[in-house]
């Protein structure tokens, strides 16, 4: 599902090579994906200009986004993604908290066009792992916690 989109974005990619958002962004680039960094606080990641927000994505309905942000920022990102009709959102481990999971459950129950993937324990209406197309990813040697990098390495 997530990987079937024609374009991708990484919210949280930055100019810091040690940050997980940049590592995810770089892995997607290395896999030949059409991916855009989103970060209102830096101008570029891996030499590619950052968009300041999801609202700047040219075609949200055909874009999957990977979210690598603290939970306090994730909730607003999910609200934007839902409002824009983003194709799919994959929360990387640590990007969720109770408010984020409640939002996902409510959006899914309301028939959201956006698909959500995350590593938190299953909750009603939320998808624990990608279940169509390529199987869900995982942290290295831990199949219970999906992440984009592990999926791309399969």
UniProtKB/TrEMBL annotation:
Instruction: Report the superkingdom from the record.
Output: Eukaryota
Task: Kindly give the InterPro entries that the UniProt entry links to this protein.
Answer: CoA-bd (IPR003781), NAD(P)-bd_dom_sf (IPR036291)
Name the SUPFAM superfamilies for this protein: NAD(P)-binding Rossmann-fold domains
Q: Which Pfam families match?
A: CoA_binding_2 (PF13380)
* Domain CoA-binding: residue ranges: 2-95
Q: List the PANTHER family hit by this protein, alphabetically.
A: COA-BINDING DOMAIN-CONTAINING PROTEIN, CYTOPLASMIC PROTEIN-RELATED
Protein name, UniProt field? CoA-binding domain-containing protein
Say which species the protein is native to. Answer: Mycena rosella (Pink bonnet)
Q: Which taxonomic lineage is given here?
A: Eukaryota, Fungi, Dikarya, Basidiomycota, Agaricomycotina
